[in-house]
Every structure is written in C-alpha cells, then in structure tokens.
Amino acid sequence: MSAEFSDAALSANLDEAVGFTIPDRQARGRVVRLGPLLDEILSAHDYPAPVARILSEALTLTALLGAMLKEAEGQLTLQAQTEAGIIDLLVCDYKGGELRGYVRFDRERLAALPTLPTLVTLFGKGYLAITFDQVVSGERYQGIVPLEGHSLAEAAESYFNQSEQIPSFVRLAVNDTGHIAGGILIQHLPEGEVGKERLHARPDHPEWEHVRILAETIKASELFDRELPLSTLLWRLFHEESEVRTLAPVALSKGCRCNADYIRSVIARFGDEERRDMADGDGFITVDCEFCSRAFPIPAESPEG
C-alpha cells in the first residue's frame, strides 16, 4: 500500500528540518538539509577542508537533535572534547531554530598529515557530550559517550543506544564542495511514544529491524541533493508503509547570541579597579566571540556607554 503523507512539507529543501512518524512501526525521525546557513557559519573562520567538513556534519547533527526539543526556548548543545587530537574542541548549539558552531584545532599538525585525516586522527581520544536544556521546565540532561567509530553519525548512534537506550539510525552527508549537508535521524519508540515508559526498546525488535533496513537504503547524494524535496526523500524510503506523517518544517538559520549590550552589562558588574586590570593600553576590554569571530571592544571606564 502506498504511504499516505499527511501534513506534509512538500518543498522542504535548504536550511529546514522536517519531522516525521511511522505510526504502524512505532518510529519517529527528522531529516535536515543545510545550505546558505552553512556557508554563513563557515565563512567566519578560515577552516581547512577537513575541519570545515567535520563542522558541517556536526551542525547537521545538531539541527537533527535540536529539532526534537519540545520547548521553543529549549537549547541543545553538542560538544566534542579530546585529548591529544588535532581538534581539541568542537562546539555546536541549537536554540529556536538558530544554529552556531566552531572548532579549535592545531593547524600545523593538520597541515603535516600526508593523507586525509580520519575521525580518530582528528579527535584522538575524546568524548561526545550532548546536553538538552529545557528552559520552561528547568530540566537539564547530559549524556556522554566515547568519541569512537568512523564518523560522528556512529558516535551519535552510540549516544542514543547507551545513554537513552533508544535504538537509533543516523546518517550525515556533505557534498564534494562542502556547501550543502544533509542528515537523517530515525528512532524506535515501542510500547509508548514520548512521555511513556519504553518497556521493550531493543535493537532486534522486528518493527525496528524493518525500519532500519529501509533507512539503510538511503544514499548520501540524496541527503545533500538540493533539488530533491525532503518529503520526496521520505516517500522513496517509506512509500510501502500504510502511513507516514510529516510535521510542518522548522526553518533553520545562523544565530550567534553575542550581543554588545549584554557584554557591556556583564563588564559593568566588575569594580573600577578590576576593569582597569582587564583593559588594554588604550583603555578597552576586548571580548571575543569564538562562534562568529567578532571582537567587542568595551571602554573600561564607562562600559555601559
């Protein structure tokens, strides 16, 4: 029987996330494709291609996870921190459809590599931490797993399997130019949807095996094909299901929350002597934003203007 797509986002393409459920299989998911927003975030830094690519994947994963937040003001933070890796810190976050991210890495060590780096080469020994902050309820939850496997997608699957005990499928893809990225996340929620106890969430559940086998047929090129609507991509995967429900698309944009007025108010809380100690020779306290690569020079004597 052909799948019935209800409440479909029929033309979701770049910088959007679309949620979906497969009721008969007790599965839910998100599919994301990033374009101009990716360029805007990457343009703030002169990242070499391997670093830009891993950040693009991380931003796509962050969008997939962030789009699952129930509260509009909730925040999702993804952080990869390492020991002895070329990349020693990668941070991305999502809030209200806005994404930001940056990478701190050793440029000289990266340039000295004879071949394209693997995930292990880039990160060495490290971990992936995913933090969900729900503003309204005040709930905060963080899960941490070793940064292992061949990709961030594998690390994310390990996070859900170990920290959440939810069988999950994650795929991330970046095109050859590095300007478009896409991803899909599918999860199994047997014996009850969100808010109910999951009694039998196991990776060998027959319903989940069915969904996963179908999901594994997805091609990387389909995830970053800007001419392929996300609803069409879902139809290709699940058109034999009796029903696939899609949600209204979530628009995604770059959103760094650095703000000159806020920075001034923070600096004004320090005493006069402390501000003078922080100031440079010209009497300014300069605060840098790693995410957007902007500097905010604030006069130490009159920080609030």
Gist?
This protein is of the alpha+beta class and 305 residues long. 28% of the residues lie in helices and 30% in strands.
Describe the protein in words:
The chain is α+β, with helices and mostly antiparallel strands and 305 residues long. The chain folds into 2 domains: 243 residues, Hsp33 domain (3-Layer(bab) Sandwich), CATH 3.55.30; 40 residues, no CATH class. The protein is built from 10 helices and 15 strands. Strands 1, 2, 3, 9, 10, 11 and 12 form a 7-stranded mixed sheet that branches. Strands 8-7-4-5-6-13 form a 6-stranded mixed sheet. Strands 14-15 form a two-stranded antiparallel ribbon. Strand 7 and strand 8 form a beta hairpin. The radius of gyration is 21 Å and the shape is globular. The termini are far apart.
CATH class of the largest domain: Alpha Beta
CATH topology of the largest domain: Hsp33 domain
Strand pairing plus helix content: what structural class? alpha+beta
The rough form would be described as globular
Mind describing the biggest β-sheet?
Answer: 7 strands, mixed
CATH architecture heading of the largest domain: 3-Layer(bab) Sandwich
- The CATH homologous superfamily of the largest domain is named Hsp33 domain
- What is the alpha-carbon Rg in Å? 21 Å
Q: Layout of helices and strands, plus pairs?
A:
Blueprint: E1 5-6, E2 16-22, E3 27-34, H1 36-42, H2 49-66, E4 75-83, E5 87-95, E6 98-105, H3 107-111, H4 119-123, E7 125-133, E8 140-146, H5 152-164, E9 168-174, E10 181-188, H6 206-215, H7 220-223, H8 230-238, E11 244-246, E12 250-251, E13 253-254, H9 260-267, H10 272-278, E14 284-289, E15 294-299
Parallel strand pairs: 1-11, 6-13
Antiparallel strand pairs: 2-3, 2-11, 2-12, 3-10, 4-5, 4-7, 5-6, 7-8, 9-10, 14-15
